[in-house]
Amino acid sequence: MDNQAVVIRELTVNSKTAFRFANVTITCEMENTLSSTEQATFDVRIPKSAFITSFVINLSNRTIVAEIEANEDASKIFSDAVSKGSTAGLVSQQSLSDEFDRDAFNIEISLAARSTVIFVLQYQEAIEKRAHKYIQRLFIDTDKAVSNLVVTNEVQEREGFKTFNYQPPTKNAILTPVSNTLSVHGVHTKKISWRPEAGQDLSGFSKTFLIEYELDQKNEGGNVYITDGGEFAHMFSTTCEETKIMGKKIMFVIDVSGSMDGNPIAQVRSAMIDIVNRLRTYDFFNIILFSSRNAMWKPSFVQATDNSKAEAKRHLSNKLRAAGGTNINSALEAAIEEFESETEPSVEENYGQTIFLLTDGSATDGVTGTDDILANVHKHNKEDGKCCKTTILSIAFGQMADVYFLRRLANENNGSFVRINEIANECSRNAILFSYESIANPSYKNLKFEFLIKGNGDTKVPFENLTQTSFLQYDCGSELIVGGWTKPGSIIIPRVDALGMTDRVAFTAVPSILTTGIDAAFIQRLVQYKKLKELIQKYEALPNDSRVKNEAERFLVKVSKEQNFVTQFTSLVVTDIREPLPSNGIQTGKIGGNQAIKRNKMAADLSIGTLTTLNYDYIDYVHDMAEQGYSSATPTYTSPLVVCAVLIISAFGSF
């Protein structure tokens, strides 16, 4: 907050999560104490995976709801309102290179003389499961005193809770004990609230409230949740039974360029030695250390016996030394070629396959163009013309890593992306270990989801009505969510085919559960959220400065506006001189509020085989571009996994 004439009377952060989807409401009451119009600017930080969905200003006599506009249009509308002395607000994304686990949004509010304004900002995000745990972060930021600050977190799930842990922003606070309830409808609820002690100085306060929990997921194959409007989400999971966990072939590709010197290389060395210790005896592994050149430890994969692990740890201790440039392309090609050179089909079929890439910079030697590197990886990592021989877990270590490239590399190769802050303590090391644990237990490969409509000749829900349905690999410590939509009232019969440790497996007895009311609204927004994430990924895979990328950006502005998600292409603007636009029937993110839930009328009117105009236009458009050679990206999606050191929780309160 940069204007001392503006006083914050109250700040509340209220989170409600259901079906792994969080709706977070930030409410702030501000007062302009002067007799002139004043402007206040401050930042709100939200998780990188989240989308802001609504912004409302409550004045003394009316409520004004913000509208999503393209960035340039929103800035002009806000400036025009300020020049006329009107109350106005603008929410736009900021680019902060040092923020590893969050995005910053700048809120500008113009307050009329001696007025009190309450603004309400909401955002939504999917809470992903990694290494058996769901982790949510609530960021609390204020740079001046607040009379009343309260944070509340509520989690509702159909499965029971195995564990529920938390780390409050500060120890010196009033913490309401965790409540645990079970409704008559079989919904388990955990709720906790926090507020600072009276009189605590909150100037410069910037803390995180961490929530970590595990669910008692007993159904092999998970559950399918269906809404009365036709949307559905299959939350696929399996139990982690040692007898069903595949061995894995894993290639560790570690950057040892000069920029890794000092604390970074020490943290990586310590973490890698621990990771080698955790390999199972039926795993196979190899190590590539790369700088200007790459050096492979062994000529081929070796089994993780006690002797080979001891030798690998000596190798890491002696050879993990930082020097030289960064030749990522050569290292990745060498890694993929090792998966190509295997001659035993049984090993290829029954083992999980992963490249574990860790780098702190961008390519400086060899092939340096990111589009060229990605094209080379696509070429080598295809099998029978399709992606992929192996998944890629890419870890961006430190501030200088090429985050955009590494995220694309993971997304386009059926992998996941992690960003880790390089700091001089054990947190960085623990974050690397957590990243490994997220891929340590491969249980199934080549998973394919399909959904039949009961009573309609067993017609399949068409591909275009679904989010990603094919996955190269599944780790039993994670969860896959496939969303879709069909005709309201349909009964969905899910089927998942996969390759297990020894044979093919079909999941055909997955229960379908009907949801209504507020539960249905959560499912609907989750499906929309995942679809938009996929569209943005396809956009990012297009060549920069191309005509098709500019056209795709304009299309994504349309998608953002129609589904009420603020993306990097749009901003929220609100003024008291604009007439509100007619409702388009889209749920605006006000889940849990006093207003009636708006349902997506496009999805509700959908019939089998008919796509919404919104998704049909874009999918057809991207497919046309791919056929014309504009994009080599495989249409797959893995949400970027952002693991910062602060996520590795060592001291929780527990219930």
Protein described:
This protein is α+β, with helices and mostly antiparallel strands and 655 residues long. The chain is built from 12 helices and 36 strands. 24% of the residues lie in helices and 37% in strands. Among the domains are: 6-215, Immunoglobulin-like (Sandwich), CATH 2.60.40; 246-440, Rossmann fold, CATH 3.40.50.410. The model is unreliable at 343-348 and 579-655 (pLDDT under 50). A hairpin with a 2-residue loop joins β1 and β2. The chain starts with 5 loop residues before the first strand and ends with a strand. The strands form 7 sheets. It has an 8-stranded mixed beta sheet.
Rough outline: globular
As for the CATH topology of one domain, it is Immunoglobulin-like
The separation of the N and C termini measures: 36 Å
Mean pLDDT: 82
**What order do the strands of the largest sheet run in, or round the barrel if closed?**
5-4-9-2-1-12-15-14
Low-confidence stretches: 343-348, 579-655
Overall helicity: 10-25%
Number of E-state strands: 36
| Rg over C-alpha atoms, rounded to the nearest angstrom | 25 Å
Largest sheet: 8 strands, mixed
Report the oligomer: single chain
CATH architecture of one domain: Sandwich
- What is the name of the CATH class of one domain? Mainly Beta
- What structural class results from the helix and strand content? alpha+beta
The total count of helices amounts to 12
Strand content: 35-45%
